[in-house]
Design brief:
Blueprint lengths: L1 E6 L3 H12 L4 E7 L5 H8 L3 E5 L7 H12 L5 E6 L5 H9 L3 E4 L4 H12 L7 H12 L15 H11 L4 H8 L3 H15 L4 H10 L4
């Protein structure tokens, strides 16, 4: 079972999303909150695997809440899937940089929402390739620092795969481009994340753009 918590200040929207999620045999909505106040306590009590978090809320916003979770819980923090109204949203980009595993539009089709929750729970990211470029190229100018010594730990093949992943290519597309199996690509991605100290592929994208590798 995938344990999901909903954090959104709109009761009708939150209730509708809960109904969609609860209709699935492999998803359990364990908590609903109208704000991010007390979020860490809720996580400790209800232990969700995934949090669907509105990025714009009164009081504590989704960015601050996500950053707090990741800072306090590290790799043990639940995955955060940001809910946003716009496909290219500065706040959504900031939430991803703070540690969220992706974002989904509030008007997304139910099947896409369900697939996104399952993907994030499985450790993947949910950021469309087109949005990835637009989101992170906006933030490239904020940092011109060269990669640190951790980048030197990557093999030439791992650097190539890092760039492919940062461009939004799927494992299957990377496998075709690099003449590898998907299983080998998945292994390379895991090693890249470990060597760079990154949590998931979304943080890999951020790393690549901030250090001008793409």
């Amino acid at each position: 079972m995938i344990r999901v918590a909903l954090v959104d200040d709109q009761p009708l929207f939150r209730g509708g999303i809960a109904m969609i999620l609860e209709s699935q045999p492999d998803i359990d909505v364990v908590a609903q909150c109208s704000s991010a106040l007390g979020l860490n306590e809720m996580v400790s009590r209800d232990r969700p695997d995934v949090i669907l978090m509105d990025v714009r809320m009164p009081g504590v916003d989704g960015i601050t809440a996500t950053a707090s979770l990741v800072r306090e819980l590290g790799d043990a923090a639940p995955r955060v899937l940001v809910l946003t109204t716009f496909d290219v949203d500065e706040a959504a980009a900031s939430a991803i940089e703070a540690g969220a595993s992706g974002f989904v539009l509030k008007d997304a089709q139910p099947d896409f929402l369900l697939a996104s929750v399952r993907a994030v729970a499985d450790g993947n990211q949910v950021v469309a390739a087109s949005a990835t470029r637009q989101l992170f190229e906006r933030h490239r100018a904020r940092s011109t620092s060269r990669p640190g010594p951790e980048y030197g730990e990557l093999t030439p093949r791992e650097r190539e795969i890092l760039v492919c992943a940062a461009r939004g290519l799927s494992n299957a597309e990377i496998a075709a481009a690099e003449f590898l199996s998907e299983a080998t690509v998945k292994t390379h991605i895991s090693r890249i994340l470990a060597k760079l100290g990154l949590r998931d592929r979304v943080q890999l994208v951020v790393y690549a753009y901030e250090h001008d590798l793409v």
